[in-house]
């Protein structure tokens, strides 16, 4: 919503989950998980434009349950990823 009031204005398209974006000085960092690898982008409030900052391999994680953060100075990105999914079949004897 503009500071001076009025109707809300959409500034980001395609950010599927609230956990995929963080505000920062001058803009918003967000993850575009529709690409492989995913792109970390920055939307600049002054220019009203977004640009790709870097790409990240999100691994096998659930794109609907992300963890993403960025340092206040914009120098560090923190995100979770799953390297691999595994399962085991275990025989349990005498369980009764």
What does this structure look like?
The model has no long low-confidence stretch (mean pLDDT 81). This protein has a 4-stranded antiparallel beta sheet with strand order 1-2-3-4, with no helix packed on it. Strands 5-6 form a two-stranded antiparallel sheet. The chain is elongated and about 70 Å long. The protein contains no helices and 6 strands. The chain has strands at 21-24, 27-32, 38-44, 49-56, 68-70, 77-79. It has 96 residues and is mainly β.
Question: Key terms for this structure?
Answer:
96 residues; two-stranded antiparallel ribbon; 32% strand
Please write out the topology.
Blueprint: E1 21-24, E2 27-32, E3 38-44, E4 49-56, E5 68-70, E6 77-79
Class by alpha and beta content: mainly beta
Assembly state here? single chain
Estimated radius of gyration: 19 Å
Helices and strands, in order, run as: EEEEEE
- Report the end-to-end length measured between terminal Cα atoms: 62 Å
What does the overall shape look like?
A: elongated
For the residues shown, what is the average pLDDT?
A: 81
Number of helices: 0
Tally of DSSP β-strands: 6
Poorly predicted spans: none
Tell me the fraction of residues in β-strands, as a range. Answer: 25-35%
* Strand ordering within the main sheet: 1-2-3-4
Q: Work out the helicity level.
A: under 10%
Largest sheet: 4 strands, antiparallel
